[in-house]
Each structure stands twice: as C-alpha cells, then as structure tokens.
Amino acid sequence: MPQTVINNENEYRFTRSSKIVPQDETTVSTGPAATVSTSTTTTTTTQSTQNSHKPSTKNADDSSIQVNTREYLGDLSNQDTGHPGQLKRRPLGGDVQPLRQSAIVSHNNSNTGGTNAKDKELIPPRLPQKRQATESSTNLVEKLHISRHPHPHTSIQVNAVGPAGIQDIAAGSSSSVNVPYKKSKLTPVDYEWEDLDEEDMDDPLMASEYVNDIFPYLRELEIKSLPDSQYLFKQRHLKPKMRSILVDWLVEMHLRFRLLPETLFLAINIMDRFMSLEVVQIDKLQLLATGSLFIAAKYEEVFSPSVKNYAYFTDGSYTEEEILQAEKYILTVLNFDLSYPNPMNFLRRISKADDYDVQSRTLGKYLLEISIIDYKFIGVLPSLCSASAMYIARSILSKDPVWNGNLIHYSGGYRVSDMKDCIEKIIAFLVAPVEHDEFFKKYASRKFMKASILCRNWAKKVVQENRDIFV
C-alpha cells in the first residue's frame, strides 16, 4: 500500500488508499476550514501509483504536501470501502441482502419525478429482520387478538365456529351476514357475571388491562405442560406407592426450607414430566426429587436455597456435584421448558369472585395441593383442580349459592357438571386413610386453620349421610 508522510506534531504515518477524485469536482472538504485542490490530489495520486512497488521515503517532494490530520481522518471515515452491490457480513453471521433498487427508484420517480446516481448511493440499508422467537410470539398475539376482537364491521355465522370460520374472520370477509359480532363469546352465555376487573383499573399490580389475555394463554399452556397420566404404569421399576413416599418427602423438604406454594407445584410437575419421558432407577428417585425442587426454587423464589442445603438434607446421599449434574440433565430432557401455569394463579383468580375470603382460600389451598400429592390426579388440568377445590371449600363453609355466575366466569367457564369427577376424586382422598403424614401434619397446624382435619371430618360426614353436594 502506498504510504504518505504527514507533517503533524508527532509525525504519525497514516496509510491512505488510493482513490481517484472525479475531475468535475473542484474541491473536497471535510471540515469548515480544510480543503484540498484538485491539482494537488491528482499529483499525489499519480505519485502514489508510480511508486506502488517502492518503499516509501521522506523527500522534499513529499514534505511539500501539507495536509491536516483532521482532513485525513475525515476523508478515511467518509470513504466507500465496498462495492454498492456487495453483500456486507453481519457481526453474528448471515448476510444482509442489498435493498432492491427498482422498488426505491420507482417510488422516488412517483414522488420526485426521477433520481440520479448520488441518490441511489444514499439509500439506507435494509433494517434487520425480527428474530424467530419474537416473530412467532407476535404472530400468536395477533391471532389471539383477531380471534377475540375482530373488526367491528365484520359479521359471522352462528355455526361458523371452526377453523374455516375463524380464517374468514381474520381475512375480513363479509360475504355471509347473519348475526353481527358482539364483544361476548361465540357460544351463548346463559349466566350473569359482573366485571370485577374494572374496580382494579387504578391498581397497576393487578394488570386488569391484560388479564383477559393472560388467563386464556395460561389455559393453552396447561394443556402442553401436562405429564403422561399413565407413566407410572409404563415404568418397569416404579410403582404409585413409591411416588407417594417421594412426594411426601418432597413436601417435608419444601416445608423445612419455607418455600412458596408455587415452588412445590412446579417441582412436582417437573418430576412428573421427566418421568414421563425417561426411565428412572429406584436409587435415583431421591436425586430426581432434589434436583426438581432445586430448579423450581430457582424459578419461583426470590432467595433460593444454596445447593449445600439440598445436599445436607439428603443426609449425604448425594453430593453437590451430583445435584448440579442432575439439574443439567433434567433441564436438557425437558428442553428448558418451565412454562407451567401454576394452579395457585387460577385459585387466586377464582378468589376474586369469592371476595377474597381467607377461610375458603385456605381450605382451597389444601384441597388444591391434594391434586399434586395423589397420583390419580396426574394428567388433570390445573384450572379444573382449582375450580373443584374452591367448590368444595365453599360447600364446607355452607355458602349459598355454592357456585354462581361470577365463579363460573372467573374459573374459566367451569360448571358443576364439568367438575363432578374431580370433586369425587378429592372427596375419596379425604375419606381414605392418611397415607401422606407430612402433608397431613402441614395443614393440621394453626397456620393453616387445621384445614386437613376440618376437610376430612366434613368429607366423612357427607359420605355417611349420603348427601348430594351437587345441588
């Protein structure tokens, strides 16, 4: 490369690429006071071309060229280092295709009547495309928004509830005009309910503006995050009794660490989903439960217990390194998917229609936790278990009516007929002898209003009297 000696204070050497300046331009300016004449630039370029294969020397001719340092820096920064049609490499890989000139030229011709060569060079590069995750989530939100809030002028048929009807709504077709679309659901609603979210519009923590979009999305996630209901019978070395003992030990560790209720629900869901995919040996069950609670605590808790505490609680059965390796393997099998809609969120949503009654909510927590303790509830939707727990809690407290329009709406549309099987399973668990001692002792304390004792006494009385609680 030709080099030019610059007479500045420290005599730094700057390398300048040879660039022929068009003869039409008289001066080239990079600052308000720095200009270079055409003759001087042409002379410098000619000398650089002739001496391209010779070492650069400092002579009288080179010293006669006086150029400011700011001018060189500005000139180098403004140079075009590549061909206008050449692809530019992105920092993280991939090529950015150049913007098509035809569309822009036609657009400019329509507006200004024509373009020149300089305007084409000043065309900005195309903006980078969206990431795949952002694009997929955006499309999902748009589909949900279109399916729930179509255009106000769009009208649909009553029987067009299938995918074809929804596609017509999204496309904005108005060929069939039978019933005008309203803000209510497609299916007729035969119950009355109040808009309780309107009272919380001033409270940003309640997120009342987005709650009608959040919970339908959670009901979609709960279907994807369900474990296999028959995995206990597919495992060769595993039996339901072993899971009961393991879950009871997990409840004891959860209570000892004073973790949140959401952490226990997520830990058992992780454990069930893992055993639905992988065959686990009997001597590794305790390690699986420890790793599941360790992952769930990291996900839900503000201050998660250290891995040393988990290793100490196992009485030295597993080291810290083994717990960390189990954590990596569990997350790899689950594909790092921890998007589990916690049943406590559904229970809190239903409590809104129950005026946030403390007694019914405490009883509901105990009844809801039965759904993760007993293996018979594997594969049952968390929202259904939450609604069934609230129904039994209100029945125990003799509230009238037990189930009304507000409770149907804020539970996700569950009616008494939908919850009948789940309620019968819960009552059967309450009537049966106590198998999970730690779980029973946990809710037999004053902190939880002795919920386990109260619910079991009520269930035995209902069965003895042969009372119908579905009236």
UniProtKB/TrEMBL annotation:
GO MF annotations, alphabetized: cyclin-dependent protein serine/threonine kinase regulator activity
SMART domains linked to this entry: CYCLIN (SM00385), Cyclin_C (SM01332)
PROSITE patterns registered for this protein in UniProt: CYCLINS
InterPro entries found in the cross-reference section: Cyclin (IPR039361), Cyclin-like_dom (IPR013763), Cyclin-like_sf (IPR036915), Cyclin_A/B-like (IPR046965), Cyclin_C-dom (IPR004367), Cyclin_N (IPR006671), Cyclins_cyclin-box (IPR048258)
Low complexity bias locations: 26-50
Region (Disordered): 17-138
Polar residues composition bias: residue spans: 51-69, 99-115
Protein name per Swiss-Prot or TrEMBL: G2/mitotic-specific cyclin-2
Species of origin: [Candida] railenensis
